[in-house]
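forwarding from the other thread:

> can someone predict this with magnesium ion?

sure thing
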Amino acid sequence: MSTPHTSLDTPLSVAPFPSRRLNRWVELAWHAAGSVDVRTKILGMVLALTTVLGLAVTLQVRAVMTSVFAEELESRGVSVASDLASRSTDPILLNDTYALHELLRETVINHPDALYAFVTDDHGQVLAHTFGEAGFPAGLLDIKMLAAAEANVHGDIRHWVYASNQGTVHEMIAPIMGGGAGVVRLGLTERRLQTIVNTVTGQMILTTLLVALAGIVAAMILTWLLTRPILDLVATTKEVGRGNLQARAPHWADDEIGTLADAFNQMVTDLDSSQRAVVEKEKARDLLLKKLITAQEEERKRIARELHDGVGQMLTSLMVGMRTMQRNDDPATAQARTEELCVTAGETLEQVRVLSRELRPSILDDLGLSAALERYVAEFARVHADVTVDLHCDLPGRLPSTVETALYRIVQEAMTNAARHGKATSVGVLVSRRNGTVQTIVEDNGAGFDVAAVRRRQSSVGIFGMSERAELLGGKLDIESGTEGTTVYAEVPL
Ligand SMILES: Nc1ncnc2c1ncn2[C@@H]1O[C@H](COP(=O)(O)OP(=O)(O)OP(=O)(O)O)[C@@H](O)[C@H]1O
Ligand SMILES: [Mg+2]
């Protein structure tokens, strides 16, 4: 048993909305227009515009001329035919066929558009015609054809149009003496007027072609002028993309494209200088690293020397002293010797302490930056007796240990530089917490120096190290220096 066939058995397919199809066409056209270059677009536009304009004007002029000429031909035909009818009256009444013939012949010769003329009597018999030896064309007297001529009537003159082997013919039919003596029929051809219309059309098409040609040349020059700077800009962009930061786009004119080229050049200049800065910074960092490694080695050598020459010597003399004491039985000498050895041991201990402090001040870990700086300043004042140091440390609580170490080393370096290079007699140190940052200022009244020149030299490990320490913690370090002294200003965020 077969199941009834329902409309649901066939899958339903929905035709796309016309608007969606239109969108697709617009998309395709847009894509096609977008994928050709600017030059082709402009040339295409000029060509299409001139062609459409030229053709439209030509067709319009042709249509107007044709209709004006046809009207003119008709009105001229009407007047010639009516004149012919009135002048035919006498020869017909006098039965003068020769005069009638001459009248028709003259009229046809004098009228440039006249193709033929003939006269029929009131029974339709041809009395005279201008067809000459070719003979009278039989079809012309066809009654059915004449019936169509009723449509166009100018007064008592009828007008009809028919196609012949000589082209379109306008025939005027004028009654003689109200039709009582017959009719005169005058045939006019459109050929001459059609030739004029064709000549004008040809000239207009030629003009259109010339204008289109001139338009193409003008458009080519215009697109060259327009696209040249853009192509140059594209070439420069590619060159810059390849890594040549010396490439610059030429400034062709003071228009929008010129402004764009200037902006682009400025951008490349900025890029170039920032890249140079990065390279220089990298170089300086490399140098610093090398110097740091060398400095570390030097420091190790110095400590090794110190241990060997200082602590080692003292421990040796302690050992020798103790051996001597071992062999000596005299208590008085032993007493004096023990005291000597105690002094030597004390000196050794002090040397070890100094060494360990230099390596890493344990007070920094134990008591914090303020205490460590106080200790350092006291020691600094002891070593540099001619320098007065003024320390203000306004730090409630402890700071992160990385920040404490960095600031301690910065103050240490700045103070050493002030005494060593600036020959300062007074140094001021201020450390304070403000708006989530720690600010450190070390000020001296020394000789000052050319900061920019020293920074450019890139061999100043001390100054570069101070900056690096601040920058590694996200802060910054500025140095101002003049004849009245130097100020090192460091700021590190917490
Ligand atoms: N406070 C200062 N007063 C005068 N000149 C200074 C001062 N600080 C630095 N300078 C000048 O800057 C130069 C570089 O200083 P920097 O601390 O970087 O190196 P250094 O002290 O010569 O060597 P290092 O610190 O590595 O032992 C010094 O040689 C000095 O000419
Ligand atoms: Mg230094």
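The pocket of adenosine-5'-triphosphate (ligand 1) is lined by residues 417-418, 421-422, 444, 446-449, 454, 460-463, 486 (CB under 6 Å). thats all i got for now
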